[in-house]
Write a structure and sequence with these properties.
Shape: globular
Radius of gyration: 18 Å
CATH superfamily of the largest domain: NAD(P)-binding Rossmann-like Domain
Helix content: 40-55%
Strand order of the largest sheet: 3-2-1-4-5-6-7
Distance between the termini: 37 Å
Number of strands: 7
CATH topology of the largest domain: Rossmann fold
Structural class: alpha/beta
CATH class of the largest domain: Alpha Beta
Order of helices and strands: EHEHEHEHEHEHHHE
């Protein structure tokens, strides 16, 4: 394999100015892909991040603002990027509450950002992928796309929907050089999770190690967080020729969570 297996490919990664999305963007850039970073903000730090990533890996990296809760902005992102070869639908948010207490606006936002944005971005990207005769659609779902937890009705519903969309996309794209798969992470050590650790330590009156093992990773048999680098590595593998016949499926990176 060449040192830049994705050279001349362009990847759009939604929700990618931090966390899993940034980890995937970094891995694709390291493999030689030009990358479009995205989030709903548009400040100097976003564009500086893109410039830094481009310099680090010697590829073209741009930042494009688009609010993934708005269908028209999802589709405009693909258009403004000039199309893509690789689409990674990663954007997501979370809210936790009992069903009967779940705020309507939070339900609507989670469904829009976590699920509907994947549909709108994919719909906008597919014609170009078909025209090129090669493409990858990678949906970042979750262990919660395969199983459930209480108090996460919107998130679990959205991620199950993403898995379903993955299968339909794969079937419609079959035979056209385009694959679609879903990565299903368990708990990943991201900045958002890092911020939750001190809160959980205070709530449960536990030290850091105990709260990680007994509270946060209770359902992750490995007892370890997945890393953004590992998720990025899986995404990059799915863009390789070794994955040409992998489509319409889920790949769990959850430390054994869904094996239980």
């Amino acid at each position: 394999m060449s040192q830049s297996p994705l050279k001349s490919r362009t990847a759009i990664v939604t929700g990618s100015n931090s966390g899993i999305g940034l980890g995937i963007a970094r891995s694709l850039a390291a493999a030689g892909a030009d990358v479009v970073l995205n989030s709903f903000t548009d400040d100097a730090g976003d564009h500086a991040l893109a410039a830094s990533l481009g310099t680090e890996f010697g590829v073209n990296v741009r930042y494009i603002k688009a609010d993934m809760s708005r269908p028209e902005e999802c589709r405009a992102l693909v258009e403004q990027a000039g199309g893509c070869d690789i689409l990674v639908n990663n954007a997501g948010i979370q809210y936790v509450a009992k069903i009967e207490e779940f705020p309507q606006d939070r339900w609507d936002a989670i469904i829009a950002i976590n699920m509907s944005s994947a549909f709108h971005c994919t719909a906008a990207a597919l014609p170009g992928l078909y025209a090129r005769g090669w493409g990858r659609v990678i949906n970042v779902a979750s262990a919660h796309g395969l199983t459930a937890s209480p108090y996460k009705s919107a998130y679990v519903t959205a991620k199950h929907g993403v898995v379903g969309l993955t299968k339909v996309t794969a079937l419609e794209a079959a035979g056209q050089g385009v694959t679609c798969n879903a990565i299903c992470p368990g708990y990943v050590l991201t900045p958002i999770i890092e911020k939750q650790i001190p809160e959980q330590m205070k709530t449960h009156n536990m030290d850091r190690e105990t709260v990680i093992k007994q509270v946060m990773l209770e359902r992750q048999p490995s007892g370890e967080f997945a890393t953004t680098e590992q998720i990025g590595g899986v995404a990059t593998f799915l863009c390789s020729s070794a994955a040409d016949q992998i489509t319409g499926t889920t790949i769990s990176v959850d430390g054994g969570w869904t094996a239980l």
